[in-house]
Design a protein that fits this description.
- The complex is a heterodimer.
- Chain A is mainly alpha-helical.
- In chain A, about 75% of the residues lie in helices and about 0% in strands.
- In chain A, helix 7 runs antiparallel to helix 8 (about 130-150), helix 10 (about 195-205) runs parallel beside helix 12 and helix 13 (about 240-255) runs antiparallel to helix 14 (about 265-280).
- The radius of gyration of chain A is 20 Å and the shape is globular.
- Chain B is an alpha+beta fold.
- Among the domains of chain B are: about 215-310, Rossmann fold (3-Layer(aba) Sandwich); about 355-415, Dna Ligase, domain 1 (2-Layer Sandwich), CATH 3.30.1490.270.
- Chain B contains 16 helices and 21 strands.
- In chain B, the strands form five sheets. In chain B, strands 3, 4, 5, 17, 18, 19, 20 and 21 form an eight-stranded mixed beta sheet that branches. A four-stranded parallel beta sheet of chain B has the order 7-6-11-12, covered by helices on one side.
- The longest helix of chain B is centred in the N-terminal third of the chain and has 25 residues, at about 80-105.
- Classes of the chains: A mainly alpha, B alpha+beta.
- Chains A and B meet through helix 1 and helix 7 of A and helix 10, strand 7 and strand 9 of B.
- Chain B: It comes from Halobacillus litoralis.
- Chain B: InterPro entries: ATP-dep_Glu-Cys_Ligase-2, CP_ATPgrasp_2, UCP005522.
- Chain B: This is Circularly permuted ATP-grasp type 2 domain-containing protein.
C-alpha cells in the first residue's frame, strides 16, 4: 500500500473519531446545562469543554472571553477552529476522497451524504434543537462508518491503519477528559457534593455510563471510575483497551515478526503497556493521576510519530 | 409523452418528422408511454440523487477555486442500430491506426512532411510537439494512443462526422459505466426485453491494453506493475481516475508517491519502494517531469523522462500526442488516412477553414455570424464563438482576435447538430447531442460499445461540455437480436 494512502486512512479515521467524541462531549454538556440551577453553575463547565474539544490558546487568540454561544459555534461549525466538527468531517472526507479506490463504496457514500447535508446545517438558525440534531448526526454518521468498516473491509493493511488511527485518537481523548476532570476535582475539592456529578459526566463523555453502572451499581467513587476508564480491559474506550488493540494491530501488520524497522515502535508499545499495568490507581492521589495522564498523552504523541515513521507516512522514502 | 415534440429542421435521433418514433426506438417509446408523469419525475429525481450521493462529480474551476458538480443525467438513451455502430467502429479503428502512424512518423522520419502533405511549420511550431524530448524513441508496441476519446456528431442528414480526436487525456469513461449502472437501477423496466451490448468485459479489455505495454526492461518473469497517475482530488476528472484505477485494480498514485532512482521509477509504499513498470498518466505532458518540461510542476516526477527513454517505464498515452489532436492538425487527418493506409476515410471530418489562409480569412470575417470559431489550443468549450448565437459585441471581439492571431483560430460551418429528446423538469424537449467514443489500443484495438452521449440541456444550446452545463445520456448499441426486435 502507498504510504500516502496509509497516511490518509490513518487521518481519516482519527478525524472521524475526533468528531464523534467531541460531538458527544458537547451534547452531554448541553443537556447538563439545562439542569443547572443558576447561570453561574451553567456557565461553569465550559472552560473544561473547550479544553477537551479544542485548544483554549487558539480560542483566546480569536476571542477575548468565553461566551457560551460563541464557543458552541466555535466547536461545531466554525471554519476557524481546526478541530471543529465541521472541519474534522471535511478533513475526513478529503482523506477518504484521496483513497476512494480502496475504501468500501458505502463508506464514501455515508461521508459524502453527511457533507451534502452539512451545507444545510450551516444555514439553519443556531437554536439548541438544531445544534443537538447536528451533534446527533455527527455521532450516528461516525457509528455508521464504523459499521461499514467492520462489516465490509477485509482485515488487511488498510483496515489496520484505520483502526490504529481510531484507537490512538480514542485513548488520547479518554486521557484528556480524565485529566480535565481530575484538575477540576482538585480545584473544587472543598465542595464535596459535586464529585458525583464530575465522575458521572466523565463517564457520559466517554459513553461509558451504562457499562460502568453494570459493574458498579449506583455508586460513583472516583477510584472506580478512574480504574474503569483507564484499566478496564473489556471497555472499548478505556486506555488499556485501546492500547492493547493498537499493539495487536501492529503485530498483525507485521505478521507477528519484529523487524529492524518496527522494533522501536514495538518497544514503545511494550513500555506503555507496562506503565499501564504497573499503575496502581487505587493508591494514587489526584496530582499523581494527573501526571500519569499527562505522561500518557505524551506517549500517545510519540507512538503516533513512531508509527508514521515506521511506515514512511511522513518522512520521504529515499531509494537505497 | 412526446405530444408537442417538434423535430424542426434538425436530424432527430429518436423521432421522425411525422411525430412517430423511428423503428429502433419503437419499443422504448411504448414503454415510456406507460409511465405516469409522477413516475417519470420520481425516477428522474432518484437518478440525479444517485449521482450526487455517490459523489460522481467533476470539478468546475472558477476564481474562488473548484466546485464539485455532478453531470446531469438524462434517461432517454441514444440507441444505435448494429449496422450504424459497425461503421463507426471501423471508422474509429481506421482513424486511430492512421493517427498512431502519424505520431510515430513525425517523431521519426517525418515521411508525411517530406511528401509535402502536412506543412512542416504546422508541426514544428506546435506547442505540443516534443521533438527535443521524445524524438526517435522506440516505445512498446509502437503505440502512442492507448486511449482515445473521439467526439462524433451527426449532421442534418444524420451522417456521423468526427468533431475532435482527444488523444491526450480523454475523460468521461467512468460516466459511461455509471450512466449504465444508474439506468439499470432506476429504469429496470427498460432493460427487461431488450438486447443491448453489455459493458461488462470492457474494463478487463482496458486493463489488458495497459498491461500489454510492458517496457523493454521490465522483469519478464513477473506481471508488470501498472499505476494510474492523477494530479489529485482537485482535478476536474478526479472521479474518472478513481473509477478506472479501482476497476482495473491498479494503484492510483500522485506525483509525490513516485520517485526515480538510477532511471527506474518506484512508488513509495509502507514497506519501502516498489518498482513501477507502466504509468497510465492523467497529467499533461507539460507537468510530467520538472527536469524535462515545466520546472515549476509540482504534480510530476523528476527524472521520469529519463526512465522512459531508457525503456525502464512505459507512459500511456505517449508523450507528445498533443500535436496530433490539435484543432489545426485535425484538418489533415483524412490525408493521413490516405497517406498511411491508402484508404478513404470511413467517417468524414467537419469542414474546417484555416484562418492563416488569407482568402478564407476574408470569407470568415464577412460571414462570421454563420460560423463557429475555435481556438486551436483550447478545449472544453472555452474560447469559442458560435456565430448564429452570438451578439454583435462578441463577434467584433472575435474578429479582432482573429486578425491579431489568425494562426490561432479555425472556423467551421455551424453544423445542425442532431437532437434527441431530453426529459428535464417534467417535460420532454429536443436537445443537441454528440457522442464521445472510446478507443482502447494495446496488442489489439477495441472500441467501447456505445460511449458517452453528451447533451446540451439548455434549450437551443450547442455546447455539450459538462463544464458548460451539458449532461450525459446512456448509449445503447443493439445486439443482433436487438436489431430484429426493433
Amino acid at each position: 500500500m502507498l504510504s500516502r494512502v496509509a497516511d490518509s486512512l490513518y487521518w481519516m479515521s482519527r478525524n472521524i473519531e475526533r468528531a464523534e467524541n467531541n460531538a458527544r462531549v458537547l451534547s452531554v454538556q448541553l443537556i447538563h446545562m439545562l439542569e443547572a440551577t443558576n447561570k453561574e453553575s451553567a456557565d461553569r463547565d465550559w472552560e473544561e469543554i473547550l479544553e477537551v474539544c479544542a485548544s483554549s490558546e487558539d480560542y483566546y487568540e480569536l476571542y477575548d472571553r468565553l461566551d457560551r454561544e460563541t464557543l458552541i459555534q466555535y466547536l461545531t461549525i466554525s471554519p476557524l477552529n481546526v478541530n471543529s466538527l465541521m472541519n474534522s468531517m471535511i478533513y475526513a472526507r478529503e482523506n477518504a476522497r484521496a483513497t476512494r479506490d480502496i475504501l468500501p463504496e458505502e463508506l464514501w457514500e455515508v461521508l459524502n451524504e453527511f457533507h451534502l447535508s452539512q451545507k444545510d446545517w450551516q444555514e439553519l438558525p443556531n437554536t439548541r434543537q438544531h445544534t443537538q440534531d447536528y451533534l446527533k448526526k455527527v455521532i450516528t454518521t461516525s457509528m455508521t462508518l464504523q459499521g461499514v468498516i467492520e462489516s465490509s473491509m477485509t482485515r488487511g493493511t488498510p483496515y489496520t491503519f484505520i483502526k490504529v488511527g481510531k484507537w490512538l485518537e480514542r485513548a488520547e481523548k479518554t486521557a484528556r477528559i480524565l485529566n480535565v476532570t481530575c484538575e477540576k476535582n482538585i480545584k473544587e475539592t472543598s465542595v464535596g457534593t459535586n464529585h458525583y456529578y464530575y465522575w458521572l459526566t466523565a463517564l457520559q463523555f466517554l459513553n461509558g455510563y451504562d457499562a460502568y453502572i453494570k459493574e458498579h451499581p449506583p455508586t460513583m467513587k472516583s477510584k472506580h471510575v478512574l480504574s474503569f476508564l483507564i484499566k478496564e480491559e473489556t471497555f472499548p474506550r478505556s486506555i488499556r483497551y485501546c492500547m492493547n488493540h493498537v499493539m495487536e494491530a501492529v503485530y498483525n501488520v507485521e505478521g507477528g515478526k519484529i523487524s529492524h524497522y518496527s522494533e522501536d515502535l514495538f518497544q514503545m508499545l511494550e513500555v506503555i503497556r507496562n506503565e499501564i499495568d504497573e499503575t496502581d490507581i487505587e493508591e494514587m492521589d489526584m496530582e499523581q493521576l494527573m501526571s500519569f495522564l499527562d505522561h500518557f498523552q505524551d506517549r500517545c504523541m510519540t507512538v503516533s510519530r513512531m508509527f508514521s515513521e515506521t511506515y514512511y507516512l511522513i518522512e520521504p522514502v529515499h531509494a537505497k | 409523452m412526446l405530444t408537442n415534440y417538434q423535430t424542426g429542421i434538425f436530424f432527430d435521433e429518436m423521432m421522425q418528422h411525422s411525430g412517430e418514433p423511428k423503428g429502433h426506438y419503437q419499443w422504448f417509446y411504448q414503454l415510456v408511454n406507460q409511465f405516469s408523469e409522477r413516475e417519470l419525475i420520481n425516477k428522474h429525481e432518484t437518478a440525479q440523487l444517485n449521482f450526487l450521493r455517490q459523489g460522481i462529480t467533476f470539478t468546475v474551476y472558477n476564481h474562488t477555486g473548484g466546485t464539485e458538480r455532478t453531470m446531469p443525467f438524462d434517461f432517454v438513451p441514444i440507441i444505435i442500430p448494429r449496422a450504424d455502430w459497425k461503421k463507426i467502429e471501423e471508422g474509429m479503428k481506421q482513424r486511430m491506426t492512421a493517427l498512431n502512424h502519424f505520431l510515430d512518423d513525425i517523431y521519426h522520419e517525418q515521411r508525411i512532411v517530406e511528401a509535402g502533405i502536412i506543412p512542416r511549420d504546422l508541426i514544428e511550431n506546435n506547442p505540443n510537439y516534443y521533438q527535443r524530448q521524445v524524438a526517435n524513441l522506440e516505445i512498446p508496441l509502437k503505440n502512442h494512443i492507448f486511449l482515445a476519446g473521439v467526439d462524433l456528431i451527426r449532421d442534418e442528414n444524420g451522417e456521423y462526422r468526427v468533431l475532435e480526436d482527444n488523444l491526450r487525456n480523454p475523460s468521461g469513461m467512468s460516466y459511461v459505466f455509471q450512466n449504465r449502472y444508474v439506468m439499470r437501477q432506476v429504469y429496470p423496466e427498460l432493460f427487461f426485453q431488450h438486447s443491448i451490448e453489455t459493458l461488462e468485459h470492457q474494463i478487463s479489455e482496458l486493463h489488458q491494453s495497459v498491461i500489454s505495454h510492458a517496457p523493454d526492461n521490465a522483469d519478464s518473469s513477473k506481471a508488470p506493475t501498472a499505476v494510474l497517475l492523477t494530479p489529485g482530488i482537485y482535478n476536474s476528472a478526479y472521479y474518472d481516475h478513481v473509477f478506472l484505477a479501482q476497476q482495473m485494480g491498479i494503484e492510483l498514485v500522485e506525483g509525490r508517491d513516485l520517485s526515480v532512482k538510477d532511471d527506474v521509477v518506484y512508488m513509495k509504499t509502507i514497506r519501502g519502494l516498489k518498482r513501477v513498470d507502466i504509468i497510465y498518466r492523467r497529467i499533461d505532458d507539460d507537468f510530467l517531469d520538472p527536469d524535462a518540461f515545466r520546472p515549476d510542476s509540482a504534480l510530476g516526477v523528476a527524472g521520469l523522462l529519463r526512465a522512459y527513454k531508457k525503456g525502464n517505464v512505459s507512459i500511456l498515452n505517449g508523450i507528445g500526442n498533443g500535436v496530433a489532436d490539435d484543432k489545426a492538425m485535425y484538418v489533415y487527418v483524412p490525408d493521413m488516412i490516405r497517406f498511411y493506409l491508402d484508404e478513404e476515410p470511413i467517417i468524414p471530418n467537419v469542414e474546417t477553414y484555416f484562418l492563416s489562409d488569407s482568402e478564407k480569412l476574408d470569407y470568415v470575417l464577412d460571414n462570421i455570424e454563420k460560423l463557429v470559431i475555435k481556438n486551436v489550443g483550447a478545449s472544453g468549450g472555452y474560447d469559442m464563438l458560435i456565430g448564429p448565437q452570438s451578439e454583435e459585441r462578441e463577434r467584433e471581439e472575435f474578429k479582432r482576435k482573429i486578425i491579431e492571431h489568425p494562426h490561432q483560430y479555425i472556423a467551421q460551418p455551424t453544423i445542425k447538430l442532431s437532437r434527441a429528446p431530453a426529459y428535464q423538469e417534467g417535460r420532454f424537449y429536443p436537445c443537441h447531442v454528440d457522442l464521445r467514443v472510446f478507443v482502447m489500443n494495446g496488442k489489439e484495438m477495441n472500441v467501447l460499445p456505445g460511449g458517452l452521449s453528451r447533451v446540451a440541456l439548455k434549450e437551443g444550446s450547442l455546447v455539450v461540455n459538462s463544464s458548460q452545463g451539458g449532461g450525459g445520456k446512456d448509449t445503447w448499441i443493439l445486439t443482433e437480436r436487438g436489431d430484429k426486435d426493433a
